[in-house]
Structure formats: structure tokens, C-alpha cells
Design brief:
The structure holds 2 protein chains of 2 kinds. Chain A is of the alpha+beta class. Chain A is built from 9 helices and 4 strands. In chain A, strands 2-3-1-4 form a 4-stranded antiparallel beta sheet. The longest helix of chain A has 43 residues. Chain A is rod-shaped. Chain B has a domain of 164 residues: 3-Layer(aba) Sandwich (Rossmann fold). In chain B, a hairpin with a 2-residue loop joins β4 and β5. Chain B starts with 19 loop residues before the first strand and ends in a 5-residue tail after the last strand. The chains are: A alpha+beta, B alpha/beta. Chains A and B meet through α1, α7 and α8 of A and α2 and α3 of B.
Chain lengths: 295, 241
């Protein structure tokens, strides 16, 4: 907190330097802008992963492929097995219209589905505790030999993994952005320290300790980082709010939707202080090194 | 055996410890020995001149005494304490007990003279009293220039401002490196008068100069001793001064 208190002397002993001020403000603003989008990417990917993990994990499909004379009997048997299986909340046979809708992307509308040997599909919704897939498969094999249980694990796992990697990518971007901010601010601080070598020499001449001299630079660059990041975050938040939503609730559209919502907006408030903290650390290191090298 | 630089005055200044003590000090730069075997003791309250030709090592000796340079051999003590290998922050704290008037009078050019003069107090976290600051500026004849920026001052004014800054924190030692190098004779005498006044107030004064006339003027006013720097070492000057 001492850093943010105005210190007349320490503030005034270093003359204002336009180039480094603009560099720090600009870099902090740009990096904060990018950081917000990296954060949004992480949050969106996290949301997708969560949706697929939770929602799809609670659904399964039973497909019945049997000789035409046995299909109905096996469907009834399978439904009976499902009704008595612990962990199954509901089981519902898909109607002809629903099956037609599923096939429409490939075969177009008005598909004469009744005349085609399309397997019967049963949609299974699990309870929160879920069911034992292995046990259910074994029971279905006994009661309805043509029934095949698909718990979506085969295709859900790589998608959840991909979403998880997207999330990691977002956090990786945040890390890279932080390192870039640190490098840019350190560069600007070094330039300011070099440009003020005579000021530093004069301050040391009159008995200033390194901490006093460093504080003058650290405070200045930290506040610049905070101001720049504040502007960048605000701009990014406005752009983010204006982005079109790609279908709320749609799992497929979730990939296209780079957005944050609800309480997640509060996370954006962390970007400016985090940038200021990075600027503080970078300037402190640069100042310590420069002052140690000075006589 | 009395050491080089010992002051003969018994009262006040004649304590056993010197405020500045060089003990077989050497200083080399780039492999070349600039000073070697320098031993001297500057007693408190004394007035010493360092003289010698340009490049003899006067400024180097003053910088050693002000801890701007570190001896490459030997031992240097300030205020009775070995300072040869002290830490950087200890250097800063020790410097607060010494006022230094640089040859080129380094100032912060963006701050007015009054703030420049007050810097030694401000950097050590102390408040500069307006009255004290006013008295000090008046003493060096710069009351009317308090708000001027350093580049606006003449050479003599800059030297007087540097002297005011050097004594702002009431140091025990005042070191001046060629303080009259860039000013006319009248201003030289004025600066000398200020230094003599400081010495009469009990300050230890160490001045590097090659101006022998100035030294003679000083000896007429105060018991000043002269040390000649040359050939890489320091010896007491003879009676010709």
C-alpha cells in the first residue's frame, strides 16, 4: 500500500520520461487486452469441457440391430432391462420423426425411414450417480442379443480432452502475456534508468539509499502498468460484450462462442492489478540490477 | 610518531581518532597504479588542502574519502570505523555525514535550487525546515535564486548552491573538489570565506585545489595544512606555501 501513497520527493526526483511512459502504458494496455481474450478462451473451453463431461456423461444410447422379426421384441426386452437397471433415470425409444431428423443431414428430408432397415434407438438418461455400463451391457446381451449400449465414452473422451487442452492453451497464453509484459516493462525501466544515470549518480552523491532510488522508478512503472492495463481491460470487456453469441445451450456452438458470463466478469477485475504486480516485479529487478552496477 | 596530516591543535580537534584515515591505501585502475602507500590521518575540525598537478590523483583521493571509489589495497577508516568493504546502503548512510562539493556540481536539473539544496535531508526521510533552508540560501547569497533551475545559474552560483547542499544535513566533514576551478577570483574568495566559516563551526574541511594563491589566502585566515599529491602518493607540503 505504501507504493500507492503519493511520495512527493521520490516522485519528483526522477524527471518524467515520455518514451518509457508511452511504451509501458501501450504495452500494458495491449497485453491486458489480449489477456482478457486468453482468459475468455480458458473460461469458454472450461465451460465446454464441463458441459460434455457432465451433460453427455449422463446420456447413453441403446441401438438394436436384429432380424426384422425380432426387432420389436428385443426393443421391448431392452426397455424392460433398462427400467430395472439402477442408475437409469429414464429410457425412451426414439420415434420415426426423431430418427428421420437425425439422418436428415446426410440423406435430406422426406427419407422413407419406415421402409429402411434402420435400427431402433433408445435414449437412456442416467441419474447423477450413473449406471454400471459393463453390467448393463451384459444384461442386454442376455435379454436382447441385438442391443448394443453406447455410453458416448468413445467419442466424448477426446472432445473433453480437446476442450481441456484449449483451456490449458488459454492459461499458457496468459503466462506468455505476463512474461511479455514483464519483458516490456523491464526494458522500459532499464531505458529509464539508463537515461537517468546522472540523476541516480546525483542522488547517491547526496546519500540516497538504493531503496529510495528504486522506489521512485518502481512506483512510477507500477502505476503506469496499472493504468495501461485498466484501459486495455476495459476495451477488451466492451469488445467481448459485443461479440455475437453462438447459440446458448448448444454443445456444438459452444466451440464457436468466446464469451464469459455472470460472475466470471469479475475475473476481469484481476487483470489490471495482476499486470501492475508484474510491472512492479520487473521494475524492481531492473532497478536493483542497474543500481548495483552504478557506483 | 605522529602521522601525516595530524593536526597540532590540542583543543577540540585533537582527538586520538581521525575522521578520515588512510592506512597504506592504494588505488589502481585498469592495471595502472594511480595511488600507492598513502597513509594520512585527518583529525576532526581541521582544514586541509590537497594540492598537486592535474592528474596527480587529488580527485581520486577525495573520491576514496567519499566512498565513490574503493581502495584496491590498504585500509580506509571514516569516523573511526573501517569502511573499506562496507555494504552499499552503509555507504549511503556514511555519506550523509559528509558533504561533498563536486568539481562539476551535479544537480537535478528539473528541480529548483531550493529543492536541490534540500535533497540530502529529503533522501534520508527528513523534512527540510523552510527557515533553515532560507538561512542556508541566504548564507551562500542565493536567496533570490531559490526557485531558479540549475541550468539558469552562473558557475559561481552553482558552486555556492553545491556548497549549501553539502552542508544542508549538518555533516561533520566537508569535501570540496576544485570548488574555485570555474569561478573568478572574487567568487573564489567568497567560497573560501564560506569554507573557513564552516571550519570555525567545527567542520572538518578537505579541499582539493591547484590554486596556491587561494591556499595562501586561507592560511592567513585559518590554520590550514597542505598535503601534496604526486607520484602516486601524498606528502606534506613544504614551507614554500
Amino acid at each position: 500500500m505504501r507504493l500507492f501513497r503519493p511520495s512527493g520527493v521520490a516522485d519528483r526526483v526522477v524527471p518524467p520520461t515520455g518514451f518509457t511512459a508511452r511504451l509501458t502504458l501501450g504495452a500494458s494496455a495491449a497485453m491486458a487486452f489480449l489477456a482478457v481474450f486468453a482468459l475468455a478462451l480458458s473460461l469458454s473451453a472450461g465451460r465446454v469441457a464441463s458441459t460434455w463431461s457432465d451433460a453427455l456423461a449422463r446420456t447413453a444410447t441403446v441401438r438394436i440391430s436384429a432380424p426384422s422379426g425380432q426387432v420389436e421384441a428385443q426393443a421391448v426386452a431392452a426397455l424392460a432391462v433398462l427400467d430395472t437397471t439402477p442408475g437409469v433415470a429414464s429410457a425412451r425409444r426414439l420415434g420415426a420423426d426423431e430418427q428421420r431428423a437425425l439422418l436428415e443431414p446426410w440423406f435430406g428430408p422426406d427419407l422413407p425411414i419406415e421402409s429402411l432397415p434402420v435400427p431402433v434407438l433408445i435414449e437412456v438418461v442416467a441419474t447423477a450417480d450413473g449406471f454400471d455400463s459393463g453390467g448393463l451391457s451384459a444384461r442386454l446381451a442376455g435379454e436382447a442379443p441385438g442391443a448394443v449400449l453406447d455410453d458416448h465414452a468413445a467419442w466424448r473422451a477426446p472432445l473433453v480432452a480437446a476442450a481441456g487442452r484449449m483451456r490449458l492453451l488459454g492459461f499458457g497464453c496468459l503466462l506468455l502475456i505476463s512474461l511479455t509484459v514483464a519483458a516490456m516493462v523491464a526494458l522500459a525501466a532499464q531505458a529509464a534508468l539508463a537515461a537517468n544515470a546522472r540523476v541516480i549518480a546525483t542522488l547517491r552523491l547526496v546519500g540516497a539509499e538504493d531503496a529510495f532510488i528504486a522506489r521512485a522508478f518502481v512506483r512510477r512503472f507500477t502505476l503506469r502498468g496499472l493504468a495501461g492495463a485498466g484501459a486495455g481491460t476495459l476495451a477488451a470487456a466492451v469488445v467481448l460484450a459485443m461479440l455475437p453469441s453462438a447459440g446458448a445451450g448448444s454443445t456444438e456452438a459452444a466451440w464457436l462462442s468466446l464469451s464469459i458470463g455472470g460472475a466470471q466478469w469479475a475475473l476481469l477485475l484481476l487483470v489490471p492489478p495482476a499486470t501492475a504486480a508484474v510491472a512492479y516485479g520487473a521494475t524492481r529487478l531492473a532497478a536493483r540490477r542497474a543500481l548495483t552496477e552504478a557506483t | 610518531m605522529r602521522r601525516l596530516g595530524d593536526d597540532p591543535r590540542p583543543a577540540g580537534a585533537g582527538t586520538a581518532l581521525g575522521v578520515i584515515e588512510f592506512d597504506d591505501v592504494a588505488y589502481s585502475y585498469g592495471g595502472e597504479a594511480l595511488l600507492s602507500g598513502v597513509s594520512a590521518r585527518i583529525a576532526p575540525g581541521t582544514f586541509h588542502f590537497l594540492t598537486g598537478p592535474s592528474g596527480a590523483g587529488k580527485t581520486t583521493l577525495l573520491k576514496l574519502a567519499y566512498l565513490q571509489l574503493r581502495p584496491t589495497a590498504g585500509r580506509l577508516s571514516l569516523f573511526g570505523k573501517d569502511v573499506t568493504g562496507i555494504e552499499r546502503d552503509q555507504v549511503a548512510r556514511t555519506r550523509r555525514r559528509i558533504g561533498f562539493v563536486h568539481q562539476d556540481c551535479q544537480f537535478l536539473d528539473h528541480l529548483p535550487i531550493a529543492e536541490n539544496v534540500a535533497l540530502p535531508l529529503l533522501v534520508s526521510g527528513r523534512e527540510a525546515s523552510g527557515a533553515d533552508l532560507g538561512d542556508l540560501l541566504s548564507w551562500v547569497g542565493l536567496s533570490r535564486r531559490a526557485e531558479a533551475l540549475p541550468p539558469e545559474l552562473s558557475g559561481g552560483e552553482r558552486q555556492r548552491a553545491a556548497l549549501a547542499r553539502a552542508v544542508m544535513s549538518d555533516p561533520e566533514i566537508v569535501i570540496a573538489d576544485e570548488p574555485t576551478g570555474n569561478v573568478d577570483w572574487e567568487m573564489s574568495l567568497r567560497l573560501l570565506t564560506l569554507l573557513v566559516e564552516l571550519n570555525r563551526m567545527g567542520k572538518t574541511i578537505l579541499v582539493a585545489t591547484h590554486d596556491l594563491t587561494l591556499i595562501r589566502q586561507a592560511k592567513a585566515q585559518v590554520s590550514a595544512r597542505v598535503l601534496r599529491v604526486g607520484g602516486g602518493t601524498m606528502v606534506p607540503a613544504g614551507a614554500e606555501l
